[in-house]
Amino acid sequence: MTDFLDEKRREIDDRLAELKPLIDEYNRLEAAAAALAGVRGSAPASRTATAPAAPATPAAPVRRGPGRPRGSKSRKTAASIRRAAAPAAPAAASTATPRRRAGRRKGSGTRAAQALSFVKGQPGITIPELAAKMAIKQNYLYRVLPGLEQEKKIKKQGRGWYPVG
């Protein structure tokens, strides 16, 4: 009975070792597909392979690429037009503290702390592996991990991330 179990354990270990490179390749391809999904002008591979593109009708407008819409003559934005039309502010108002520019709100750092704990638990972990463990998208980690690296909490070697110290 123990010989049978040992043999099955060896078979499972051998198969796992055989499949590991394929899983790594799958993760890399999945990351590349996710990165390309946001690129304008690209279509998902499954759609182009299975469904033919719909024929363009002559009455349908032609979709244009990025840039100003057809018919716009000026590069002035609505904000610059409002500023030009507004009366000049008194000199006393210019000495007040400037308003803070709107932007992305600083997070609480819980994801960064979670990522740091995973890096400490498994040194050399890659972003695709980390994203799978955290059940989040990889692009978020591409912003969080360099921040942890600047804080000298982790370092990158090759594709893997390692704790400092």
Class by alpha and beta content: mainly alpha
Specify the overall morphology: elongated
CATH architecture of the domain at 110-163: Orthogonal Bundle
**Beta content:** under 5%
> Would you tell me the overall average pLDDT?
77
Low-confidence stretches: 47-57
Helical fraction equals: 40-55%
CATH class of the domain at 110-163: Mainly Alpha
The biggest beta sheet is recorded as: 2 strands, antiparallel
Q: What Rg, in angstroms, do the CA atoms define?
A: 27 Å
Task: Write down how many β-strands occur, each being a DSSP E stretch of 2 or more residues.
Answer: 2
Distance between the termini: 47 Å
* Number of helices, counting only DSSP H or I runs of 4 residues or more: 7
CATH superfamily of the domain at 110-163: Winged helix-like DNA-binding domain superfamily/Winged helix DNA-binding domain
CATH topology of the domain at 110-163: Arc Repressor Mutant, subunit A
Widest beta sheet: strand line-up: 1-2
Which key phrases capture this entry?
Arc Repressor Mutant, subunit A; 7 helices; mainly alpha; elongated
Question: TL;DR of this structure?
Answer:
The chain has 165 residues and is mainly alpha-helical. Helices cover 53% and strands 5% of the residues.
List the helices and strands and how they pair.
Blueprint: H1 2-37, H2 45-50, H3 78-85, H4 91-94, H5 110-121, H6 127-134, H7 138-150, E1 154-157, E2 160-163
Antiparallel strand pairs: 1-2
Helix pairs in contact: 5-7
What would you say this structure looks like, in words?
The protein has a domain at 110-163: Arc Repressor Mutant, subunit A. A hairpin with a 2-residue loop joins strand 1 (154-157) and strand 2 (160-163). The protein is elongated, with a radius of gyration of 27 Å. It has 165 residues and is mainly alpha-helical. The two termini are 47 Å apart. It has a two-stranded antiparallel sheet. The chain has 7 helices and 2 strands. Helix 5 packs across helix 7 (138-150).
